[in-house]
User: Fold 3-oxoacyl-[acyl-carrier protein] reductase from Pseudonocardia endophytica.
Amino acid sequence: MNPGPGLLDGRVAVVTGAANGLGRAYARRLAERGASVVVADLDEEGAQHVAAGIGREGGTAMAVPVDVGDGALVEAMATAAAARFGRIDILVNNAAIFLTVGMSRVPFDEISIAEWDRMMAVNVRGTWLACRAVVPHMRRQGYGKILNVSSDTALKGSPNRIHYVASKSAVLGFTRTLAAELGPSGIRVNAIAPGIVLSEPEPTEARYAQATAGQVLPAALVSDDLADTVVFLVSPASDPITGQVVAVNGGGYM
Ligand SMILES: NC(=O)c1ccc[n+]([C@@H]2O[C@H](COP(=O)([O-])OP(=O)(O)OC[C@H]3O[C@@H](n4cnc5c(N)ncnc54)[C@H](O)[C@@H]3O)[C@@H](O)[C@H]2O)c1
Assistant:
């Protein structure tokens, strides 16, 4: 899939968790396609670095520090985005407790209550808070695209991180329900469910085998694979699609 440059010209995109990993790849790709991008993250320095890099490459971006679990900060993020760019067309709810902000990988009864609650506060409440903050802008425009990031672990289960998998499962029901509520306002809400994405530039053979185990396609997923799907799902090319979950997982779960 190569939607081509300019597909998102004039659009304003907020990407949460865009200072690192996949969110950074999404921010860069959306900017390449013409969107003005709000790089929102808990990691303020990382967000500034990503926004500056986009600027150096000829794109438009601003960094906004945010904890998506904090309602006031999330409102401030949307206000800052609208103040700078005048509108908000796209929200990618990518921020999560996952790698950069890590989690315990232990049996279900060894997770602390505090860690369970923080997981839900960031991965689930954060998704809701960000939608709540940007939807008024989208409603005024009569159009908007929201893309929530789930995980294919939510489709097939995955041991020793039940709080994470439960949070990503919640994102699926959230997506379908919000799509039903916002469809009449012209706002589309979809989700992606990535499989294991290789972030190492030179993975060991063992790591490659682990990443592709269970896939029907032999190639491991890399961030570019996800970024092109993200562009499609936030662009007008996908306007008839809402309430859907797209598994980008090499056929690991069908
Ligand atoms: N990498 C994979 O293999 C994979 C697979 C399935 C799903 N995912 C999902 O994709 C998304 C990105 O994954 P990644 O691999 O880039 O992980 P990552 O941990 O590197 O990136 C997450 C980003 O979110 C930010 N963040 C964490 N808590 C935050 C908060 N409270 N407020 C604002 N920002 C916060 C982090 O600073 C980081 O920049 C996550 O939602 C993850 O669950 C990733």
Remarks:
- The pocket of nicotinamide-adenine-dinucleotide is lined by residues 16-17, 19-23, 41-43, 66-69, 94-101, 122, 126, 149, 151, 194, 196-197 (CB under 6 Å).
- The chain has one domain: 12-248.
- The domain at 12-248 is CATH 3.40.50.720 (Rossmann fold).
- The chain has a mean pLDDT of 96.
